[in-house]
Amino acid sequence: MKLNKIILSFVSALVILFSTSVASFAKVVGDKIILGAAISLTGKYSSNGVHTQNGYNMAVDRINSMGGVKVGGKTYKFDIIYYDDESNPKRAAQLAERLISQDGVEFMLGPYSSGLTKAIAPVTEKYGVPMVEANGASRSLFTKGYKYLFAVLAPANLYLDVAIETAVELNGGKPVRIAQAFEQDAFSQDVRLGILDAAERTGSKIIIDDKLPKELNDMAATLVKVKQMKPDVLVVSGHTKGALTAIRQIAEMKVDVPMLAMTHCDAAKLSKQHGKNSQYALCASQWHKSLTYKDDFFKDGMTYAADFEKEFGYDPPYQSAESSAALLVFKDAFERANSFDQKKVRDALAATNMQTFYGNIKFAPGGQNVDKPMVLFQVMCDDAGKCENKVVAPLKWASAKLIHPVPKWSER
Amino acid sequence: MDFLVFQYPMITVQACLDGILLGVLFALIAYGMALQWGVMNIINIAQGDLVILGGYIAYFMYLYGIHPAWGVIVAPIIMYFVGIAIYKLVINKVVDRDLFISILATFGISILFMQLMNFAFGADVVLANSHYGTTMLFDNNVVLPNSKIFSAFISILFAVCLVIYMKKSKLGRAIRATAQNARAAKILGVDTEKVYAATFGINAALCGVAGALISITFTIHPYMGLPYTIRSFMIVIVAGLGNLPGVAMSGMGLGVFEEFADYILGTEFRIGSVFLLLVLILVYRRFKLSRKREYLK
Questions:
Q1: A404 shares contact with chain B (CB less than 8 Å)
Q2: pLDDT score of A107
Q3: Are strands A69-71 and A74-84 parallel, antiparallel or unpaired?
Q4: Contacts of B14 in chain A (CB under 8 A)
Q5: Quick check: B227 contacting A, CB < 8 Å?
Q6: Any alpha helices (H) in A262-317, and if so which ranges?
Q7: Does A226 touch chain B (CB under 8 A)?
């Protein structure tokens, strides 16, 4: 008797829970378009997770205050349901499942990092939920034939191949010798593939090809090899710890290399943490505030950076800018589809061709953005030790001239 | 596989020196672990997390404009009290229980510390710059960052002070007596409860010093503690409890082993090779023990 009662109350509690949650969060409620996102608010990606969330929030506020989204003659406002995925891919996939099947979300925004996007994409694909993501650049995301995944950013293999091409160009078109060290994760390994392609294209030789562990905090061995073998270019990609460790040890060990190219410099706050030691490092970036792209909502990069700083108190890293751009893409697609039908929105997304403050956006069939090149900036410091990131390549957007080769440590 | 290390003899010298400097630091952490293992029969899985916490103390001093080297004095003082607090809250409840319970308890503390540090300090990788410069040897072919030399020197200094303290002071003698036979020590008037608390505090203080040194030489991150726990566990296993010269030797040995594994197998196998070595040593020990047993039969 007692057991029956317990089961009955349990089941009824569940029924109530489900019915309320479905009723309160459907895809479009009243004048609200509800998007879902699993974001890393805790765990190892939490700092970039917060940058992502700030970028989303900034765009939501801006679009809502500037008239919202017009669909079928009615004005709608954006709203986002966030869950914390704890930087854990399994959790992210569960949360995507929950957002879609329990909360009834019909449109998703991406999480932070390629790994988590990889975990979520099969779920959104299964339910046919269009997802615009801004922080998963791994090439493998775009080769699986996903139909509902759209990334506003350039794929990872394009991050640093500009650096190799520039090095070859500066070498008078002759091939260069490359040393590279990459962390063993989806993103960095894709950056590596890009370098391999670029090396093959230019006939360059890779003389050191090291893999870095996840718990990296010492890459002295790689740098000793670099010292002995004297390559023309050193490429390092291992998220923020890779960038920080490389700069620290290159400075300490006085490793002279004509060109040093990296990823994640601004996420690592390289110039703030290392000051003048980080000078001359070349960094791949999806976006820089000095680029001259324009849109109606944020005007341009400089205005975006100023507004962002006013709201959140720090200079926006590219992770925030691309996240804001994801919302602009959604707004544009909703208005062109003029409907909330998932299929129609998906088709509208696939036909996107627009400019935002972050860059041009046009999706390839795989879902990656093919209309926005990567930029390279170089850390440049003045005599007082104040450092700034200046765009040096591609030439179209360069605000400073590339300093090459990097001066030797003995001459600094 | 990479045999560069044999083609360029200077790399061998570099690897040995790097390994020894690093190994001394490992030995300091391992010494703390050996101490509390021997005295309290507790294997502290949270060892590495205490190290990282010590690193954050030095990092925050650096942020506020104090030279991080002062961290090697401030961090152990703060960490000593953190250690005592952990003892009073958790460890004193598991100290007489079997090893498994204490491993579980310290594993829990480890997870708690990771999450708390992540919550309080953020998930960014950080470091403290000492601006100590570099020492060049052999015609600039071997480079030693002075921060590494500094950290090895400080580690040795602390280890020596601790050894003297253990030999000469009243508390040191009480700790050694408790390690030999807790019950007998108690009967003879040693307040073992106090000894346990002090031991845990001293261990945490050693971790604090090591952490401050790591933030000066490498980088710290809330989730980076486990490799340090594993390394110190490994060193203690090799050296045995209460064998201080053994801890120092096996610490340096491990440092050199890691560096060579790094050069020959590649950086990605660095930590992996430590695990592998641990397994091999455990298997070897078991094999030796079983032979002994047969002989006794």
A1: no
A2: 93
A3: antiparallel
A4: 224
A5: yes
A6: 270-274, 301-312
A7: no
Q: Which domain holds residue B73?
A: 4-296
Phi, psi at residue B98, to the nearest 5°? -75, 170
Q: From residue B2, how far is each of A193, A218, B7, B266 by CA, in Å? A: 21, 18, 10, 7
Residue-wise pLDDT tens digits, B26-66: 999 999 998 888 888 888 999 999 999 999 999 999 888 88
The answer to whether B192 and B182 are in contact (CB under 8 A) is yes
In this complex, the residue of B124, B134, B262 whose CB is nearest that of residue A254 is: B134
Residue A22 is predicted with a pLDDT of 44
Residue carrying structure tokens 């045999």: B3
- Which site among B147, B148, B267, B274 would you substitute to test the A interface, given the most A Cβ atoms closer than 10 Å to its Cβ? B267
Count of Cβ atoms closer than 10 Å to residue A124 Cβ: 25
Check: CATH 3.40.50.2300 for A23-154+291-362? yes
For residue A15, name the pLDDT band (cuts at 50, 70, 90).
Answer: low
Residues 264-283 of chain A with CB under 8 A from chain B are 268-269, 273-275, 277
- Supply angle C-alpha A207, A212, A213, rounded to 5: 155
Give the domain CATH number at B175.
1.10.3470
Cis upstream peptide for A405 (omega within 30°): yes
Inter-chain CB proximity A217 and B147 less than 8 Å: no
What pLDDT is stored for residue B143 in this prediction?
Answer: 81
Query: In angstroms, what separates the C-alpha of A166 from chain B's closest C-alpha?
Result: 28
What pLDDT digit, counting tens, does each position of A369-394 carry? 988 888 888 888 888 778 888 888 88
CA terminus-to-terminus distance, chain B: 45
**How many domains, in total, are found in chain B?**
1
Cβ distance of A42 and B122 shorter than 8 Å: no
Selecting from B127, B129, B268 the residue whose C-beta is nearest the C-beta of A211 gives B268
Cβ contacts of A47 on chain B, cutoff 8 Å: 122-124
pLDDT over 90 percentage in chain B: 29
Whether A275 and B124 lie within 8 Å, measured CB to CB: no
Q: Does A189 touch chain B (CB under 8 A)?
A: no
CATH fold of A158-285+374-411 reads Rossmann fold (3.40.50)
Tell me which of A87, A188, A212, A215 to substitute to probe the interface with B (most B C-beta atoms closer than 10 Å): A215
Residue of A185, A207, A210, A180 whose CA lies nearest to A195 = A180
Spell out the domain ranges in chain A.
23-154+291-362, 158-285+374-411
Rg of chain B's alpha carbons, rounded to an integer? 20
Asked if the model's pLDDT at residue A25 lies above 50, the reply is: no
Q: B71-86 and B146-168 helices cross at what angle (nearest 10)?
A: 50
Answer yes or no: same fold for A23-154+291-362 and A158-285+374-411: yes
pLDDT band of residue A18 (cuts 50, 70, 90) is low
